[in-house]
Amino acid sequence: MAKCLSMNRRQTIPQHLRYTVNDFNSQFPDDDSCLEFLKEQRFPNGITYCEKCQKERKHHRVTGRPAYACDYCGSMVSPMAGTIFEKSSTSLRLWFYAMYLMGSTRCGISAKQIQRETGVTYKTAWRMFKQIRSLLNEPDLKLDSQSVEMDESYFGARRKRGNKRGRPSRHDSSKTCVVGVVERKGKTSVATGKGRVIATVATDATRQTLHGIAKERILPESTIFTDEYFSYNGLDKQGYTHKRINHSAGVYVMGDIHTNTIEGFWSLVKRGVSGVYHSVSRKYLQTYLDEYSFRYNRRDQGNLIFTSILQRVCERAV
Length: 318
What we know:
Elements lengths: L1 H6 L13 H7 L3 H12 L4 E4 L4 E7 L6 E3 L5 E2 L14 H13 L6 H8 L3 H12 L13 E10 L18 E9 L5 H4 L4 E5 L5 H11 L5 E4 L14 E4 L15 H18 L7 H13 L7 H11 L3
Parallel strand pairs: 5-8, 8-9
Antiparallel strand pairs: 1-2, 2-3, 3-4, 5-6, 6-7
């Protein structure tokens, strides 16, 4: 009986945040529907600036072409111009489907899986995901919570030197240092946007690097929770309240002092990378961190993360 109950768990995503594959197929059955959606996002009601007329004009769809023509002079514009879709021979619906899958999975989806599902080449699938990830970075994000956890982690091949569980030695180039900062999530997180994370590839884990990231991303007078790593020394002299947990002594929680939130994020990323992508090069690691951070920061949106990615397409159009 207990086994039957565990296998019939109720849907954990609220009804208003669900967006199933059937919903996707209904809203975007073909390329035309995707193009029309993109047009409405960029040119509401078909009204946009006409270069030839030098003013805002109404545009209508050109039959047989992914473009819209000015009602007055016939000059054409494309909603895909300046976006990641420009000059792509791949079906626009496949682009949308790839974004839907990226937004709907917790640990990501590989280009190989897109190749199997859609029939495109691996090279095309990899390029699509690379382009989509380029939209997901948030360079201006600054954490405004008064309680923040900070930690560094390491990604890459097996370590050549040092303790298996410890930090790599200074000259060990087999690992890439990554620094993460996360807000403590409170009861009002949905309304205030708390609980966000920033993950940045760093050249090293020196005091200068870690303090620089803290100054750039964390508001002054915030409380920063870290472990005992010596490079965090002096944060209290930078205008922060600094609290530490001593992991080397086997202590992981002491009241409200811990770094469990950021370590939980590292666990999510590392298990996703090893299970889905198997390995990620130093060159592209930041884009994968951007992908995981984007989803993590919008985890309260349920399956509607897909719509946030679509919104980024229009926001980043040039």
